Amino acid sequence: MNAFQEMRSLKIGNTRTDGNSIWLFDNKIVDVREDGVWICNGGWDSATTKERLNGLTGVHIVQRGGNWLLNGRQWDGGWVNVDAWNQGVDSIPEANVQEPEFDVTSRWCPAIEFISGAHSRPVYAVFHTWVEGKLHEVEQILNGEGIPTRRMESDTEGVYRPNYFVIVQPENFDRAKDILSESPCVA
């Protein structure tokens, strides 16, 4: 929190800041925008998430009966402007809703893990196909389980046919693989 408040970068364990945002396990949970400080739980109602957010000035989160209360009011964990929330405003203008972040460009598995020598794949790919139309069913299954997805296409530069992937956020990877392994329509 000191690094964040001093607007400097720092990473300690599972938490990092660039001085403008805070990430916990690569989920952005704090973002400074033109209109103030915005927070969310990144989809995790965990004690660690609550502890990180409670380190912010003007944020006090408690859990009662399985529900989170942000500064005395029930909160679903979605993005909120802390100042507006403290003034009783809990609706979020659609333009300020942010899509979950996916780390898709910085890490790739060796090609040998997929099709030896043919191409590489994103680390968090849970499904691969050469037919783009097959992605929709996998996305529906995972989204129905509350797992955000993103499509990726490998850059083959015309050497091979395109490879299409469904990727998930790192924290959803194992669960998504388990769900898909039990689905007869994906095999």
Overview of the molecule:
- With 187 residues, the protein is α+β, with helices and mostly antiparallel strands.
- The chain folds into two domains: 2-95, no CATH class; 108-181, Alpha-Beta Plaits (2-Layer Sandwich), CATH 3.30.70.
- Helices cover 19% and strands 28% of the residues.
- It contains five helices and 14 strands.
- It has helices at 2-5, 47-54, 82-86, 135-144, 173-181, and strands at residues 10-12, 15-17, 21-24, 27-33, 36-39, 61-64, 67-70, 73-75, 80-81, 108-109, 121-122, 125-129, 149-153, 164-168.
- The strands form four sheets. A six-stranded antiparallel β-sheet has the order 1-2-3-4-5-9. The chain has a three-stranded antiparallel β-sheet with strand order 6-7-8. Strands 12-14-13 form a three-stranded antiparallel β-sheet.
- A hairpin with a 2-residue loop joins strand 7 and strand 8.
- The protein is elongated, with a radius of gyration of 19 Å.
- The protein starts with a helix and ends in a 6-residue tail after the last helix.
